[in-house]
Amino acid sequence: MTQRDCILIGAPVDSGKRRTGCLMGPDALRTAGLAEALRDLGHRVEDSGNLTPEPYDPESEGEDLHKPRETAGWTARLIAAAEGAMARGLPIFLGGDHALSLGSVAGVASHAARTGRPLFVLWLDAHSDYHTPQTTDSGNLHGTPLGYVTGRDGFDGFPPVANPVPQENICLLGLRSVDAAERAALERTTIHRHDMREIDERGIARPLAAFLDRVSAANGLLHVSLDVDFLDPTFAPAVGTTVPGGATLREGHLVMEMICDSGLMSSLDLVELNPFLDERGRTAQLLVDLTASALGRRVFDRPTRAFA
């Protein structure tokens, strides 16, 4: 296994939705032993601490959208942090709600463009997050990052996306909650989409392997965005957007092991962990274990956990 320079970037973004608690996510992942798990696998680990958003005017927040100015401030900060970290190693963005990916993916995309390599995005999520500020009924911007990074209109006040991610370079895996407006928009795209019905029928390995083959053939960089609600809430309860019927524990590890085997992952988001909703820290621990699987831990190396 190749030794990696893993750069932990805390992004306690809690502005992307109305239910608070994700700001505690980065420190919960640290407490669960993320750095130690990666060092045990032989990787070098740098913890950059927690970011703060670029300055913004709280008085200018609108009524229809939830905290758009704060989210824009986070986006600007994360774009810069992602570009800088990509030049030094493999950034792992510790969320924070999924609005952090507006900045992490846009920043990684700029780095990819500068190095002359295409960026591919694997979106592990129950939701497609392809809304714009105009199409979201909830007003929650954690449902908009893929809309933003693919260059959809309507993100007034946000940093311009210098290098939009091509639709065909995105794979959504684990979908099971997509509203009508998003469905209609997605059907007009070339984004690869795999819902839980397909995964139940064909398994999770086949569509993932096909996507990883495309990344490899293009000599692409791979950004992986892991939302807690990709997993069934039976295994990962610490999320404010629980949707039953998600990926099992074993499917989650298989995805990460296949990513590891490919050697393609160049950046990673861990998002939507709300420790306030957790049970004895088991969701935070699961995210640590999944990250370890993505970076080299094999089945027979996995420790036994006791939560009693």
List keywords for this structure.
308 residues; alpha/beta; Arginase, Chain A; 8-stranded parallel β-sheet
Q: Give the amount of beta strand, in percent.
A: 15-25%
Largest sheet: 8 strands, parallel
Helix and strand content put the structural class at alpha/beta
Number of helices: 10
Distance between the termini: 34 Å
Rg, rounded, reads 18 Å
Counting DSSP E segments of at least 2 residues, the number of strands comes to: 8
Largest sheet strand order: 2-1-3-8-7-4-5-6
Annotated CATH architecture: 3-Layer(aba) Sandwich
CATH class: Alpha Beta
Report on the architecture of this protein.
This protein has an 8-stranded parallel β-sheet, with helices on both faces. Strand 7 (about 220-225), helix 9 and strand 8 form a beta-alpha-beta unit. It is about 35% helix and about 15% strand. It has 10 helices and 8 strands. The chain has a single domain, classed as Ureohydrolase domain (Arginase, Chain A), CATH 3.40.800.10. The chain is globular, with a radius of gyration of 18 Å. The mean pLDDT is about 95. It is α/β, with parallel strands linked by helices.
Indicate the topology.
Blueprint: E1 5-11, H1 25-31, H2 34-40, E2 44-50, H3 68-86, E3 90-95, H4 100-115, E4 119-124, H5 145-149, E5 170-175, H6 180-186, E6 192-195, H7 196-202, H8 205-217, E7 221-227, H9 249-262, E8 265-271, H10 282-294
Parallel strand pairs: 1-2, 1-3, 3-8, 4-5, 4-7, 5-6, 7-8
Briefly, what is this?
The protein has helices at 25-31, 34-40, 68-86, 100-115, 145-149, 180-186, 196-202, 205-217, 249-262, 282-294, and strands spanning 5-11, 44-50, 90-95, 119-124, 170-175, 192-195, 221-227, 265-271. It is an alpha/beta fold and 308 residues long.
